[in-house]
Task: structure prediction
Amino acid sequence: MPGPDFETVVAGFYEPLYRFAMSLTRSEADACDLAQQTFYMWATKGHQLRDASKVKSWLFTTLYRAFLESRRTLTRFPHFELTEADSDLPVVLPEAARRLDTAQAVEALGQMDAVYRAPVALFYLEDCSYQEIADILEVPIGTVKSRMARGLAQLKQIFAEIKPAPKQPRGPIE
Amino acid sequence: MNNQEAKKILILFRPGSADEKDSSFDEARQLAKTDPELARWFASHCESYLILRPKFQAIPVPPGLKEQILSERKIYRPYFLKYSRPLLALAAVLVLLLGIIFGLESFRGGAERYSAYRKRMIESALRSYSMDLTTNDPAQIRGFLNTNNAPADYRLSGGLKSAAVVGCVVSSWQGNPVSMICFKTGRPMAPGDQSDLWLFVASRKTVSNAPSSSEPVFARVNKATTASWSDDHNIYLLAAVGDQTLLAKYVSNAP
Result:
């Protein structure tokens, strides 16, 4: 049975894929490249995907692999199980979250260790189940959870060091 | 389950998502209803998530990205052909006809439109590639390209002679070798990048419709600026991410 056509796939996923790429690279040009490369791969290899429900995972996995390849960090990260995670589990405070704007939130993601960045980005950006995130990142689900927990702890520290977003100046009232 | 164990589970909980129905959170959420300290912690976690999520989802997508992706579709292998035997047969006939046409065209000295060649080469530079030879020695590069039957009789402009060379790739276009010589402009590069200025050299017979003059012709391809010119034997394509001013200093004194 034919899968979804190219335009439908692009229309459905180019925005979330771009946002994921942007959260990984912090560069608009690189994020555009990654998104384009992902759809290029889809156009050439997408037909090999038999299960149409896996299109989203396939695209995110492909983009993430392309990101790793572009950064020459294909080396497998060590797996940390959740039981090994720090017992200290800080929570990002609402006050810290409230004073950030989008650019600062993305900037904070970019400052995280690369190993935590993708799971935390997916944590906030997508409604993927943990199994889907594990499939996208190609690591066991326990590792995903462990990295997220550690990543969120690191994000809290980074947020604490970020200065509040400047208030937008009001324009003249007409 | 104690307070700490519950936190380890609940820190991964995303309010308003599929996690609401995920039974693996049930026990910890139940405990949060009876443990005031855990309840405060969990409420704080959920509030932060609900504040941050829309901020991440507000990352602006560049206008025109979708159109750019769809326009590149033109060079992709038609995906739907995989599923249609009649269309496959039709495609085979078309390929055969095109093969005859292009064969005749090649015989007359032409091969393919220059714009398609330029686009493909720029894409290969902007996306991932691995260097076949990494060296700062221009003579070694020329020797390597010559050994691998890629164009090595190129003439460098004054600007390129003084640029820092870092290596080369033997690329191809329609079965013909193309020399890709990689330089560094000295600008900051992304981690993992090895070069940010690329010179493609192909034989004049390889591509039709290329600029026939030694005077560079500038064009924008994706996010790169390109300059194209020719000499008696070769077609030159120089590319970098940046504006024309950057490229102009490297094509000055172009042969």
In short: Residues 113-248 of chain B form one domain.
